[in-house]
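A quick word before the example. In earlier lectures we treated sequence and structure as two separate objects. From today on, think of them as two lines of the same record. Here is TATA box-binding protein-associated factor RNA polymerase I subunit A written that way.
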Amino acid sequence: MKNIGVLNYLKISLQHALYLLHHGMLEDANRNLSQAETWRYGEKSSSQEILINLVQAYKELLQYYTWSQKKMELSMLDEDDYAYSTKTRNMLSHSWKTSVHICALVKIPGVWDPFVKSYVEMLEFHGDQDGARKVLTNYAYDEKFPSNPNAHVYLYNFLKREKAPRAKLLSVLKILHELVPSHKLMLEFHKLLRKSEKEEHHKLGLVVLFRILDFAGCTKNITAWKYLAKYLRQILMENHLAWVQEEWNSRKNWWPIFHFSYFWAKSDWKEDRELACEKAFVAGILLGKGCRYFRYILKQDDQVLRKKIKQIKKSVKKYSVVSPGV
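And the structure line, produced from the sequence above:
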């Protein structure tokens, strides 16, 4: 391989190792990375040093894979068993050696998701919560690193495991919301906002739900529609009509076709009647009883959902933001 070009040897070795990893040839990949790790040509440049770090880190990632398998085996042993304590000592030693090069790599600005996750897992296994928190915080907030939604996901999950205060969890998810409004954690963000005592958080909770449903990939998310239906009823009961109008004004020209057309009413009723009922309530609240989606669902006869449909009709009549008669 060295005949291909000495200047590109490290890159080619790394690409070859990734190919081997992709095809499950772990031993061959490890051997390839070990050879590349010891190779030098001329004076070490900064770019060459980064590649060497990357080669070493991928080698450590392979060792992490072995370590994680041992960790799985450990979880199946009785903690009082002698074999448990022996394996634990071996794993502590192994993880310490494995994490050295990964630690160096994740300090270099870049996107290092698999390395950060494995490194943090090993730090947590060591009981080094402070170290793990520091790594994740730097990865998420250091301005030298590129914007990366996953960094905030990892930090949030770590803080959640630590049972961190709600304020900390909210601050992390708020940034994630700005980066990826449709992320699956946004429903969790909404629930945390709803539990807050601050009115601004309650208002943001509504924004979060509307923004989730702005995305085509979320149109069938029944949980999001359930949350929105329930929350609309709640905030209208609390006389926050202005909040609803503020969100609806920027969507009233495209949401009716995007979500509440006659086509979608028929399709949703056929595929998921529970979803159709939640959407019908939201449609009635936002567009009034004249909405075609709302009217179509109300005309359907379903013994199981008959009571629910009657409740929807009653609630829409009471809480719709559209003037009566429209």
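Notice the following. Residues 50 and 105 are 8 Å apart (CA to CA). We will return to this example when we discuss secondary structure assignment.
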